[in-house]
Amino acid sequence: MLYLTEMNNKYDLMNPYPVWLDPDDTNYQFPHPDNALTEPDGLLAVGGDLSPHRIISAYLNGIFPWYSHGQPILWWSPNPRAVLFPEKLHVSKSLKKIIRKKTFRTSINQAFEQVIYSCAQTPRKNQDGTWITDEMQQAYLQLHKLGIAHSAECWLDDKLVGGLYGLALGKVFFGESMFSHQSNASKIAFVHLLDELTNSDYALIDCQVTTDHLLSLGAEEIPRNQFLKLVEQHAWPFLHNNNNDNNNNNNNNNLA
Length: 256
Fold this sequence. Notes:
The protein is α+β, with helices and mostly antiparallel strands. It has nine helices and eleven strands.
């Protein structure tokens, strides 16, 4: 793993083009996010692979993969960054009422594969196709088997009607995608996940990019440099915990 502070010496911070990543580079190096383009906002690097080590390295450096079928792997670090601080979660009165009725059942990690597949297949407004390619699905399924990627589910009777997934590193949850096949289902799953994260003393939820849906739940935008400092403070301890534990299935994120 190459830390951000070490990478300033390797890459020119004024580089106007995204860096090409060598898939055979086993150091899993990334350019510093300050290299990211402003148009399109946050595009930082191209290529590499979706191995667990590279994906973990990306998230710990404030970077995430996002690309469509037929494109090379694209790596992003937008500025500003959408985040949600657990203590600022906003649950509307109407949503609280729906949750209290207990019409829906919620769970954690009961249907990860179904959740990521549903996120990929659910049509989205102003979006053709999906960025959650088969390759991306397999990569995150592997991370789930390693105990790093997690899902939250919302059920109506025995039918999965909403959910979301992401990575838990240290005390930061890096959200990836959510879906809803029933009104408010993804919000209900999100609130359940936030309850679990709060009980486990998580400090930050990375929402990546701003949407009205996330803003309604309390998300906000912060400068990228502030986001990177928070990741260093709250997610990087995952490295030390993992280095002191030879069991790759234990990253101490406390999500069952």
